[in-house]
Amino acid sequence: APGERPASYIKSAGQGAGQHTRQHTFLRRFKWNEPGCELNTLPISPFSCTAPLKQEAALDNGATVLNHSMHLVHRMENLLTLGNSSDVSLRVQTMNTDEVKVIQAHSLVLTLQSDVFEELLLSRNNSALVLIETPECAAVFDKFVRYLYCGDISLRLDQAISLHKLASKYRVWGLQQGLTQYMTQHLSSDSPTGHVVSWYNYALQIGDATLRDSCLQYLSWNLSSVLQSGEWGSISEDLLLSLLQRSDLILQSELELYEALESWINQNQPVSSTIETALRAVRYGMIPPQHLFRLQRHSPLMVKYYEAIRDLLYLAFQFHSASPIQLAKYFDVNCSIFTPRNYLSSSWGSPWIINNPTRDDRSFSFQTQLGPSGHDSSKRVTWNALFSPRWLPLSARSTYTELGAMQPTRTEGGRPRIIVTPATSSPDFAGVSFQKTVIVMAKQQGKVIVRHVYNFHQSTEEAGDFLVDADLQRRASEYLIDSSLYLHVVIKPLYHSLLVARK
Length: 503
Ligand SMILES: *[C@@H]1O[C@H](CO)[C@@H](O)[C@H](O)[C@H]1NC(C)=O
Ligand SMILES: *[C@@H]1O[C@H](CO)[C@@H](O)[C@H](O)[C@H]1NC(C)=O
Ligand SMILES: *[C@@H]1O[C@H](CO)[C@@H](O)[C@H](O)[C@H]1NC(C)=O
Ligand SMILES: *[C@@H]1O[C@H](CO)[C@@H](O)[C@H](O)[C@H]1NC(C)=O
Ligand SMILES: *[C@@H]1O[C@H](CO)[C@@H](O)[C@H](O)[C@H]1NC(C)=O
What we know:
The chain is α+β, with helices and mostly antiparallel strands. 39% of the residues lie in helices and 18% in strands. The structure holds 2-acetamido-2-deoxy-beta-D-glucopyranose (5 copies).
């Protein structure tokens, strides 16, 4: 009868008035047929296999679920591979070739999963449906159809885009979402030629801002690896320029970026206006003067485009020749060449590995160069960092006292915190604000990746969300690598008088 859903008979364990009536009907039918009662007229299980009964302890009414869903999936798969009772043949034609792949399918299943198929099936003239696909999509089409029948899919990194295209074209939203999630979770996976750049380009093309930003963030936070990979040469001009703008890039040094830019330009030979734009995005103030001398002499790119960046180099050498504060007294400067990125080299900061981080407070000292200016290159600053696994904000503590309760013990509540302070003060610090950045690694798909970057002035308390979702108490926390927390602390001197536009 219309409106009736035969499948709900199987779910006899459910509750509700409707279910009750149905169970009731069964019983009556059972009685009526008593002597020659034939079990197979009862809708117990559509399968003859002997799957183990699954006892659901929490189930109401003491009912038991017979779960044959895996078997059903298997049947569906067979239906597709054998093509029994097929009422439509999909002729998947590879674009611009005469290659055709034929799949015996079932309009009911296709219609169930995709309204695009529904429309195509309604408007077809005969039992064949011709679908024209790109070679990449045609290559994964049978995987795609199998998903429509079975609801699961196995894929490799290089198949994600083609499958995503098919899921979008035929409006199979669940698959499309699953693939987007797969991509954001597999950015760090190994692939011989790299995949993140092509995923980024695809995200840009389809306007998926979330995927695009995930790719961009991954590339920015893992730039040293990317610069050394074969993928680097293949990045588009737009992607190159948008990476060069960012201050959150994590890499060894600005010199590393310049050298990678030079090799990208050699490989891609863009027009000279692009080369000039790219060269002007390098932060020359962050490259020590001895390296700038060498580049001026030995980098063919710099020799050729010297005029386009002459003003920036001049500014960089002025910056290196005296204290940045002196420079700021005399010149109005408004550009990014004095803003550090997240450099991993030892003059800027230090790695910090904290074993069993929840155990107790930990402190750590390290040294950095006072600043990137050549004038400061021989001056060192010692920093003390203190990590507290369960630090309580002041507001939380005062509540306890007002209530007259006991001081909270160290184990209850509290959040991780890091504070970084200089070991001694110095007149050199005048006019400089030291921005601290803590880079937090985590394990994803067995790989160590950068998971978070926190910026603060003195305490991670300022960031508000420092390690909030890390759950360090849990042994299996993805933030723990061999039960340790892997951090890298970077100290970035900011000369506000140089950076802030002056009237
Ligand atoms: C049936 O079994 C499958 C896998 O064997 C499982 O994923 C599914 O949740 C089960 N369904 C029920 C209702 O227990
Ligand atoms: C499906 O078709 C194959 C061969 O075309 C046949 O051997 C098999 O018995 C059929 N299965 C069912 C369930 O009808
Ligand atoms: C079906 O046939 C009509 C008329 O013969 C034709 O105009 C139409 O394009 C055909 N549709 C398809 C999907 O082949
Ligand atoms: C960087 O990417 C490589 C693969 O390209 C991966 O193995 C590594 O874990 C990534 N590292 C970080 C810090 O994201
Ligand atoms: C400083 O530079 C920014 C970005 O390049 C620009 O938007 C701003 O107008 C500049 N300010 C002055 C005072 O030159």
